[in-house]
Amino acid sequence: MQQAAEKALKAYLTHIGYSFKFTHDLLELCVVCGTFEDGFHDLEGDCSDISHYATDTRYPNKNEVDEAETRIALRKAERIVNFCVSLMTSAPQA
Q1: What is the pTM of this model?
Q2: Could you report the per-residue pLDDT of 2-31, keeping only the tens digit for each?
Q3: Which structural domain, as residue segments, surrounds residue 37?
Q4: Domains identified in the chain, total number
């Protein structure tokens, strides 16, 4: 779910022609996106909340994630992805 949100944010930046630096930090990416579209500011909390999944769930002996937490994180990732997709499909770029 973190990766989906990360890819969506990076896709939006690519869509608008912005070259971004290498990072997995969703909040950092969201703040950059917010300089182009105000609606991203509403997603900063979601990005901050799920950014740690970039490493926490990929490696053994990291924090365990229960089903309830997973469902919440998934909803946050879906909001991020859906917002990015809506921007990329709503108006053609010049």
Answers
A1: 0.87
A2: 999 999 999 999 999 999 989 999 999 999
A3: 2-90
A4: 1
